[in-house]
Write a structure and sequence with these properties.
The structure is a single chain. The chain has 136 residues and is α/β, with parallel strands linked by helices. It has 7 helices and 5 strands. The protein has a single domain, classed as 5'-nuclease (Rossmann fold). Helix 1 packs parallel to helix 3 and helix 5 crosses helix 6.
């Protein structure tokens, strides 16, 4: 089983979030026991902001055993299609293009997405299996 991971789950762990840190860490361990975890460049960039430098971020991600899996052109185009649908339905948040890239990457490169943002991904990436560490 290949699990794509959303930024929020990694930030829960790396920032020792008092509410979600432990459950997100446990979910990551569970996913690694049944397969591999992948992240796209968007997740790498967003997660790295929690560190003082890129070298520390790289080491932390490698220590967790998460593999880098780049977006394909088809996934990026699928993200654009989903983002347009969001905007057509009245969506106003402009920066969510990153979330659409993460969802499209997960749908094309993994069996499931580990995220706490189930509603968003369920609405725009139908058929993508979602795992929420906070839904315990």
């Amino acid at each position: 089983m290949i699990t794509a991971v959303d930024t929020s789950v990694l930030l829960d762990v790396f920032t020792a979030d008092p509410r979600f840190g432990a459950t997100s860490a446990s979910a990551l361990r569970d996913c690694l026991q049944v397969g591999s975890i992948v992240m796209c460049e968007v997740v790498v960039a967003e997660t790295a902001t929690a560190f003082g430098d890129s070298r520390s971020a790289r080491k932390a991600l490698e220590d967790l055993g998460i593999d880098y899996s780049p977006l394909t052109v088809d996934a990026a185009l699928a993200a654009a299609d989903a983002w347009r649908a969001y905007r057509a339905k009245g969506g106003r948040r402009g920066r969510v293009a990153a979330d659409f890239l993460i969802g499209a990457h997960a749908r094309s490169s993994a069996d499931q997405l580990l995220t706490r943002d189930r509603g968003f991904y369920r609405a725009y990436f139908r058929g993508l299996k979602l795992s929420d560490p906070s839904a315990g």
